[in-house]
Amino acid sequence: MDPTVRSLIARLHDAGSRYVLAATGGGVGAAAWLLSVPGGSRTILEIVVPYSEQALCEFLAHSPASFCSVETARLMAQRARERAQWLAPGQPVAGIACTASLCSDRSKRGEHRFHLAIQTIQAMRTYSLTLTKEARDREGEEMVLDRVLLNAMAEAFGIAERVAVPLLPSEAIVSETRPAEDALAALLEGRIAAVCVESDGRVRSEGSRPKMLLPGSFNPIHDAHCRLMETAARLVGASAAFELSIVNADKPPLTDEEVRRRMVQFAWPAPLWLTRAPTFADKAQLFPGAVFVVGADTAARIVQTRFYGESETQMNEALNTLRSQGCRFLVAGRVNVEGLFLGLDELTIPAAHRDLFTAIPVSDFRMDLSSTQLRIKVDPSNVPVDTTPRSRPDGG
Per residue in 74-109, pLDDT tens? Predict the structure, then answer.
């Protein structure tokens, strides 16, 4: 390996930012270099090579308009950074991407080119180069790409050192820097109301909304949550997702660090919707037609006027909002603070709203486990002083 390449990679390993690198069509030489210089475990979270069209479509969760374009490189970098956030919550991370169309064993009518993108919390940087056709073999084109990629990483991570890139007189690298677009940051800042964190870590703010949600605070998530979701999905015949509101009606919003800590618990079980919807009326506006899966304790709070400022009118308005949005509740039995098991039949539900609630039979689901019990088990000082909510009911 060229000593200047080795030196720059060593500096990259010391930069402090961790990343996921995704490469298709080229860039595997740089990936091999990065892995061969000691220290990569400090920075490299994952290297993925979605080489076939199907693999790239699965990586992006859709088919791009062009498989080798600046836009595809940006999408790959965004996806890579989401994956990095998933793998290293609360740490500075980046997503690095390369898509290329280089010299192969058959003649290409199109240009030989590559596009690189690096997504950090601050910016999205892209680098594009059209190579002079037939001027190099595949190895020569790969070498140019690999060196440009290392220099792009150095720029993104604030490293002054660079390696030489053997460009021909007709070749010029085109670069662009844009402010970062981060859906999770937009949610935390209050600019959007909801994002979906897919089970593989992808974050999206657009697209279809689920028809069944299990809301909660998930501090922590446990087996009863997962079992309840599976049971509800089977009974209703619809796929389900978890929902966590980062805004609570009577508590401070969750911090960025706390949101990411809770997010990482959901790797693979099911999608997680993060929202700014503390009440079920708010959730109904975001998820029309949804079935909300709740415990009997939450169902009891939903129909108690003390959570609506002692106003029966406000309670009726909230529940009528749910009805108008086509939403309803699926209720699982829970053990109360006195140790008694309560199901929907033991609750006093106003006749006018009874149609909004359906019980999950005990024969289908019962697990006497709660997040509070788990926190106390880990740390006995976590015993709550007063668990009575002071505001409107939410999904916590």
Answer: 999 999 998 898 888 778 899 999 999 998 777 777
Residues in the chain: 396
Residue 18 φ then ψ, to 5°:
-95, 155
Q: Quick one: tokens of 167?
A: 């460009």
| CATH architecture of the region 3-181 | Alpha-Beta Complex (3.90)
What integer pLDDT is reported at residue 103 of this predicted model?
86
Whole-prediction pTM: 0.60
* SS3 readout for 285-318: HHCCCCEEEEEHHHHHHHCCHHHHCCCHHHHHHH
Rounded to whole angstroms, how far apart are CA atoms 275 and 209? 12
Low-confidence ranges of the chain (pLDDT < 50): 374-375, 378, 383-392, 394-396
CA 373 to chain centre: 27
Token pair 């596009």 is found at 115
d(CA 297, CA 315): 17
Q: Please calculate the CA angle 47-110-127 and round it to the nearest 5 degrees.
A: 45
Delimit the domains of the chain by residue range.
Answer: 3-181, 184-382
Secondary structure (DSSP) of 82-126? HHHHHHSTTS-EEEEEEEEE---SS--SS-EEEEEEEE-SSEEEE
Q: Which CATH superfamily is domain 184-382 in?
A: HUPs (3.40.50.620)
Q: What is the DSSP annotation of 117-143?
A: EEE-SSEEEEEEEEEPTTSS-HHHHHH
Q: What tokens were used for 332?
A: 């699982």
